[in-house]
Amino acid sequence: MAEPGVKDHRSEQVRVRFGRAIRRDLASEVSRLGARKALVLSTPQQSDLAFEASEVLGPLAAGIYTKATMHTPLDVTEDALEHLQASGADCLIALGGGSTIGLGKALAYRTDLPQITVPTTYAGSEATPILGQTENGVKTTLSDPKVLPEVILYDPELVTRLPIGMTVTSGLNAMAHAAEALYAENRNAATDQLAIEGLETLVQGLPAVVATPEDLDVREATQRGAWACGTVLGQVGMALHHKLCHTLGGSFNLPHADTHAIILPHAIAYNARAAASELTPISRILKGDPPGAALYEFAKSLGAPLALRDLGVSEADLDRAASLATQKPYPNPQPVTRDDIRALLQAAWAGDAPAF
Ligand code: NAD
Predict the structure, then answer these.
(1) Which of 88, 131, 287, 312 suits a disulfide with 105, CB 3.0-4.6 Å?
(2) pTM of the entire structure?
C-alpha cells in the first residue's frame, strides 16, 4: 500500500503531457502526486537516462534500478521489489519502452504505488491497465486499475534516440492496437474515433520520421499517435493479431515490435473477410485497398521487416505455431481455423503479401 500522505492516485484521471525536455519536470510531477521519494527504473541499455533522472530529482530520488527486461520476468520483478522496499520509495518512475514500463506496472500491482512513465518507444503500454508477466517461460496477462500509470510524460527528445528500424516497427506495433480496435467486440463510437486518430497520425508521421529522424515536431506528432493507439488498446479487447503475436513471441522468443510489424498486414487481411466495413478507415487512410495489402505496402515502404524467417523462425516451426495459436478459442471477426492460420503464417514467414 502507499504510505500515509500519498494521495489516492486512482481517483484522478491519467495526467498526460507532451513537450521537449519535459523529463526535466520529474521533480514537480513527483511532488504533485504527494510523494516524497521516487525509484527510477530503466533497462541496462538506458541506464544513462535513469542516472539523468536521478540527478534531476535531487533529494526526491530514492535510487535507480536498471535491470528491466522484456516480457517482465517474475525473477526480475521480485529482485526489483526487494530493491524498492529497501529504497523507501513511495513513487515509481519508468523511463523506457514497454519492458521498463512493464516492470513499473508489476511493482505497482504489488505495492499500489503511483507511477510516472516517460515512454521512449511507441508501444503504448503506458496508457493501459494491462500487465503481461512471464514465469517459467509462460506469459500471462492481467488487467487491473492499480496497474494504469498516473502520469505520462512524452518527451520527443527521447524518441529521437530510437534507431530508425525500431521506430518503424514500434510505430507499426502502435498501429496494430488501433487496427484491431476497429473490429473489437466492445468498441464504441469514441474508441473508433481514437483508433482512427491514432492511425491517421502515425500514417502521416512515420514516413516523416524516417525522412527526418531528428525533427522533434514530427517525433512529438508520432508520440501523440502512439498515445491514442495505446489508450484504445486499454479500452477494448484485442483479437487475432495480438493473440498471434503473443503466441509467436512467447514460443519462439521473438522481438516484440518486429513480430507485430510482420504479422499486422496478414492478420488484418485475414479479418477483412468478416469485418470489411469496420476496416474501411484503414483503406481510406492508407489510400489502398484491401486494407491488409495496403498495410503490407506501407510497412514495405518504411523498410520494415516483412518475413518471420528473418527473425530466425524456421519453416518447420510453422505447424507448431499454427497449433499453439489455435489451441484456445477467443472472439475474432473471422473464424480461426488451424488450416487458415497455417496459410497466414506461411505468407508471413516468407515475407509475401497477405494470403487472404
Ligand atoms: P522494449 O521496452 O523492450 O525496448 C527494446 C530495447 O530498446 C531495449 O533495450 C530498450 O532499452 C531500447 N530502447 C527503448 N527506447 C529506446 C530509445 N528511445 N532509444 C534507444 N533505445 C531504446 O520495447 P517495446 O517494444 O517498447 O516493449 C516491448 C514490451 O512491452 C513487451 O514485453 C510487450 O509485451 C510490452 N507491451 C505491453 C503493453 C501493455 O499494455 N501491457 C503494450 C505494449 C507492449
Answers:
(1) 131
(2) 0.95
- At 177, which CATH number? 1.20.1090.10
Residues 278, 208: one domain? Answer: yes
345 alpha carbon to ligand 1 midpoint, in Å?
24
Residue 109 belongs to a domain: yes
Atom of ligand 1 nearest to the CA of 100: 2
CATH number at residue 70: 3.40.50.1970
Ligand 1: centre distance to CA 97 (Å): 3
CA of 170 to the centre of ligand 1 (A): 8
55 with 82, same domain: the answer is: yes
Whether residue 355 is contained in a domain is answered as no
CB half-sphere exposure, 221, CA atoms < 13 A: 19
Q: Whose CA is nearest to atom 42 of ligand 1?
A: 125
Which stretches of the chain drop beneath a pLDDT of 50? Answer: 1-11
Asked whether residue 356 is domain-assigned, the answer is: no
pLDDT of residue 251: 85
Q: Is residue 204 part of a domain?
A: yes
- Do 147 and 171 reside in the same domain of the chain? no
Residue 139 has a pLDDT of 82
Looking at residue 137, its pLDDT comes to 73
